[in-house]
Amino acid sequence: MPENAHVYDYVVIGGGTAGSVIASRLTENPDTTVAVIEGGPSDVGRDDVLTLRRWMGLLGGELDYDYPTTEQPRGNSHIRHSRARVLGGCSSHNTLIAFKPLPSDFDEWEAAGAEGWDAASMEAYYARLLNNIVPVDEKDRNAIARDFVDAARQATGVPRIEGFNEKPFDDGVGFFDLAYHPETNKRSSASVAYLHPVMDERPNLTILLETWAYRLELDGARAEGVHVRTKDGEEILVRARREVVLCAGAVDSPRLLLHSGIGPKADLDALGIPVVLDLPGVGENLLDHPESVIVWETHGPLPENSAMDSDAGLFVRRDPGHPGPDLMFHFYQVPFTDNPERLGYERPPHGVSMTPNIPKPKSRGRLYLESADPSVKPALDFRYFTDEDDHDGRTLVDGIRIAREIAKTEPLAGWLKREVAPGPDITGDEELSEYARKVAHTVYHPAGTCRMGAEDDELAVVDPRLRIRGLDGIRIADASVFPTMPAVNPMIGVLMVAEKAVDLIGDDAR
Ligand SMILES: Cc1cc2nc3c(=O)[nH]c(=O)nc-3n(C[C@H](O)[C@H](O)[C@H](O)COP(=O)(O)OP(=O)(O)OC[C@H]3O[C@@H](n4cnc5c(N)ncnc54)[C@H](O)[C@@H]3O)c2cc1C
User: Fold this and answer.
1) Whether the predicted pLDDT of 309 surpasses 70
2) Transmembrane ranges (predicted)?
């Protein structure tokens, strides 16, 4: 094979949520060549992936990298972090709840040193998104979810919201906006919206599927490309004439940097990985949205209709001085007892769940390597519920109490037979906290592990133009660059990061 067979203008590592956007946008120019290195297979023609309501079937399956967490002394040590191994990444696996980050989220990024990422400047990128973002369709609105919305409004006094993305909110309850096609329940994932329409038509776009990137190729401080292993086990070097764009997500982007010798020097030395660049922030600032669960048995089976079994939610602002909501709930039309069962609770034949969720968690975790072998999964220590003031733990306790008030309120109350978990006898702060933390789960929002910050911020991994500090020819664009966690579900934020990255790449190519 000729030496130049694997040379492209841009090499995008990860054909996931952000990577799909970037590859699609860059190849709008027919003179620009792009290779996408994607660890998973294509999602084209796969109903198990493309049908939104089948999302739970993907958890832990062959399309899930399935990362464990380290022991969590104050939380649940059994959480598995699903990360999708398929074109479209987690947008091909998730529930596609679609929230534009709140203005306070982006303004917080700017205040954290991400110059140019304020809410007003970011608005244009939301307008560019190609995904079909629509409220949960009328036919998908289950009767019990409608009654949850009414009961929550009455019990908490928050407004009912129709179209959460229309204007900023501090609190409210309603059906979510989703990135989906209601007529078929088909996903409007990043791959469906950005790659499917163009991938067979653009000779300048090469997608290397089931190909794993295991080490960056560096010449001094310049990223030249990436070493990959193809589906057939062949090891090749894919070179970038202009830039490498790292889009492997909040777990695999820092993982690849660390295996390439870019990260905290002492950690790399300890593992015998030759240090290329001492960048202490790589893997730090591991963020997530943890949530707990309260489960009720219903008097009988529920109506079947739904978009994806968690179609409505509630945002509460307990502290009037807080910018935006400080407590959130998903309402599940299923009895979500996976974690309570470990404590001895039983799954009822029919039921529903409310999941108090921490929009702005204060605990910060860390991702690190335990082996120099790139095939060994990294350690994820989220340090759940370790913040000094116990803001995170207390949020869950408040959440359970509010959930109980909602459950007592008609029209929801009439559906519910009994509280299964934690059960009506658990009422004290201490015991509620213990329960809430031990059954806590993730909604799979890891972020922040290569966070963006000002050029002189020692712990920032990328600058506000998404360039890795201290290197040339490489940017990161995915959930790992989030300086802080948005109060809402992060996927739209990731898509907006990707759209902005395309502008930044374009500016620097001129
Ligand atoms: C089950 C689940 C439900 C969720 N629900 C929602 C929701 O409803 N709303 C919401 O806003 N967010 C949700 N999220 C979170 C959201 O999907 C993610 O935050 C977002 O999609 C992350 O995008 P990303 O581009 O950072 O990474 P990803 O989309 O994960 O993309 C990374 C890509 O890189 C590939 N890759 C990784 N490492 C390598 C490597 N070394 N070599 C080659 N390829 C590699 C992967 O295969 C993947 O395709 C959910 C996530 C999950 C898993």
Assistant:
1) yes
2) none
Measured between alpha carbons, how far is 399 from 402 in angstroms, rounded to an integer?
5
Q: Which of 53, 87, 93, 94 to mutate to test the pocket of ligand 1 (most atoms within 8 A of CB)?
A: 94
What is the arithmetic mean of pLDDT over 278-303?
98
CA nearest neighbour of 355 among 448, 289, 299, 298 = 289
CA-based end-to-end distance of the chain: 32
Q: What does the alpha-carbon distance between residue 56 and residue 41 come to, in Å, rounded to a whole number?
A: 19
| Centroid of chain to Cα 80 | 14
Q: If we measure between CA atoms, which residue out of 219, 292, 249 comes closest to residue 83? A: 249
Q: What is the mean pLDDT of residues 6-17?
A: 98
Q: Which two tokens stand for residue 202?
A: 């653009």
Residues 6+ apart with CB under 8 A from 170: 315, 317, 324, 325
- What is the model's pLDDT at position 116? 98
Of residues 299, 210, 224, 314, the one with CA closest to residue 260 = 224
Taking alpha carbons only, the member of 38, 51, 48 closest to residue 88 is 38
Q: What is the pLDDT of residues 70-86, one digit of tens each?
A: 999 999 999 999 999 99
Confidence at residue 84, expressed as pLDDT on a 0 to 100 scale: 98
Q: Ligand 1 site: residues with CB under 6 angstroms?
A: 13-19, 37-40, 82-85, 89-91, 93-97, 212-213, 247-250, 252, 256, 444-445, 478-479, 489-491, 494
Tens digits of residue pLDDT in 22-46: 999 999 999 999 999 999 999 999 9
Report which secondary-structure segment, H or E, holds 357: strand 351-357
Q: Can you tell me the distance from the alpha carbon of 332 to that of 338, in angstroms, rounded to the nearest whole number? A: 13
Site of tokens 């909040």: 250
Residues sharing a CB contact under 8 Å with residue 73, sequence separation 6 or more, in sequence order: none
Which amino acid would we find at residue 320? Answer: P
In the block, which residue shows the tokens 């993982």? 255
289 pLDDT band (50/70/90 cuts)? very high
